[in-house]
Automatic annotation (TrEMBL):
Residues 22-248 form the ABC transmembrane type-2 domain. GO terms for cellular component: ATP-binding cassette (ABC) transporter complex. InterPro entries: ABC-2_transporter, ABC2_TM, ABC2_TM_bact-type, ABC_2_transport. This is Transport permease protein. Its main location: membrane. It comes from Saccharopolyspora spinosa.
Length: 248
């Protein structure tokens, strides 16, 4: 009974999710569009000795993956959950056999699927259009992607917990969005940052993830210190979300 109810909630939320083409574009298409624009710049397709012989476009494939996660977990999900609370939907659900946790699980699952789809698209376009090599250490690459997605979704849940309404969630999410875009290397690849700034950024979940993805792409196992940073942030943010989340 519980499983069938959860499936029904997921299907309903999926239909509502598909009615937001703007969110779908920013989550699934915009990161790859940015990657494509950068790839069309001739200088970005040339090997750079400052980046260990890599090209700028090689560095921006993992950046596109992280950008998709930020769009989904920080920009898209918090306003939806905060809006449900603002309109009393969660409170009404709590009085029925349908528990609000089913709605939360559906939202996290849908945004997680959007992240996966965007990742496949970015990696595919990078490979086919710009000859970006596939990750040599695929298992490590996949592991850091999953851990980072969980971290970003945990942050999104924490933002949903502290936001009083959808408008506030959007405002808080925008501040977090700018900071995370920088730490993910959207404007300056983390590998190209000065050493001191790189060390500082590596203490953030997106900065550590960017460096770990680069390590796995080159064939090495992601540094345990980078993995630890992402795991610790995920645990802290998930704990904050659980502690602060309100159904009404």
């Amino acid at each position: 009974m519980a499983a069938s109810t959860s499936i029904a909630v997921f299907r309903t939320e999926a239909r509502l999710f598909a009615r937001e083409p703007g969110n779908l574009f920013w989550m699934s298409v915009a990161p790859t569009a940015l990657l494509t624009i950068l790839g069309l710049i001739p200088a970005f397709r040339e090997a750079n000795p400052n980046y260990g012989g890599l090209r700028v476009i090689d560095l921006y494939v993992p950046v596109a993956l992280l950008m998709a996660m930020i769009m989904a977990g920080v920009q898209a999900m918090p306003p939806v959950l905060a809006g449900y609370r603002e309109r009393g939907i969660l409170r009404r659900m709590s009085t029925t056999p349908l528990r609000p946790t089913a709605l939360l699980a559906a939202q996290i699952g849908l945004h997680g699927i959007a992240m996966l789809g965007s990742a496949v698209l970015a990696i595919g376009v990078g490979r086919l259009a710009f000859d970006v090599a596939l990750p040599d250490q695929f298992a490590g690459y996949a592991l850091i992607m999953v851990l980072t997605a969980l971290s970003v979704l945990a942050l999104g849940a924490a933002l949903s917990a502290v936001a009083r309404n959808a408008k506030a969630a959007g405002a808080i999410g925008s501040v977090a969005f700018i900071m995370m875009m920088f730490s993910a290397g959207v404007w300056i690849p983390v590998q190209a940052m000065p050493d001191l700034l790189q060390r500082i950024v590596s203490l953030t979940p997106l900065g550590a993830a960017s460096l770990a993805l680069g390590e796995a792409a080159g064939g090495g196992w992601p540094s345990w210190s980078h993995l630890a940073v992402v795991v610790v942030w995920t645990a802290v943010l998930a704990g904050a979300a659980v502690r602060w989340f309100r159904w009404e």
